[in-house]
Amino acid sequence: MSARDYAEKDYYAALGVPADAAAVDIKKAYRKLATELHPDKNPGDAAAEERFKTVSEAYDVLSDETRRREYDDARRIFGGGRGAGPGGFSFDLGDLLGGAGASGGGGGFGDVLGGLFGQQGRRSGGRQPRRGTDVEADVTLSFVDALRGATVPLRLTTTGACETCRGSGAAPGTSPATCPVCSGAGVTSRNQGGFAFAEPCTGCRGTGRIVQTPCPTCGGAGQSRSERVLNVRIPAGVDDGQRVRLAGRGSAGERGGPAGDLLVSVHVTPHPVFGRRGDALTLTVPVTYPEAALGAQVQVPTLDGPVTLKVPAGTTTGRTFRVRGRGVPRKDGTAGDLLVTVEVAVPQRMSAESREALERYASMTQDDPRAHLKEVQL
Question: What pTM value is reported for the model?
Fold first, then answer.
């Protein structure tokens, strides 16, 4: 069936349903008509038999969601076949389509539908530039290097244009020939259900070219795998598990296409002292009981050297202090904060004098830290 015949058919009218009919209504209409028009019920009735075929054909298209959508799109674009143009003159759908059938040459219905339904048109061919593939790599950094940023060497195996044939796939001194199957287009048309679908040419695998004398290095592929060492700059503040994308550092493109990207997955080793919470660094600092009770000036480490933290008198264990601007570097040049949590250290061993002094202190203390618990009603 030609493209013109397909577009001029009104499958909705054949089933007696509107164009926005639901699938269940289409099925119901088909069953009713198929029962009435079945050849077994109308022996010798050529008109009934012909209409039965038309109803069956209409149901085959409209009952399939994909084929129905494609049919609707075609009718919407081409107006359902023969009609009147501006000024009232008649036009023929065949003239609009260049007189080509579903399997016709360039400029025909197959080309139009190829673009309409996402297929690659015959004229696009297989010789368009193609972007190179992305390359993935892993890198392990120390906690400090991840915060400050580091340049690390990565050994990568990438695919690029063969140096022997410069990507043509043909042996030196020879050139690829135009594919005789698709005439260099890289795609061929296939007629199915009244539509022409473009698909990669099997003769040249979509390239549009036939390599008669393959390159001895790449075997005609036009590409070869190679190892290279690339010095990669990991930005400051990267976190464990984060992926860094470096544009254009992946595999080379084909036929002048852009290179792919390099995707680096970062793994950060834990630090023995510092932790991380978003763009804030965390640190636990032990203090003695006298320092917590009486107050003290305590030195704490940061990435840029030690700072003095004022611990006020009466500080309880677990209290957190904020040291501004001493955390994780941000992209805008600022930095997060350092969160210092105080933990009262309990001595594991005590001298006799220390024990005696502590017992004397305990005997003079009247405060009961558990007094509020005695009032709890169970």
Answer: 0.52
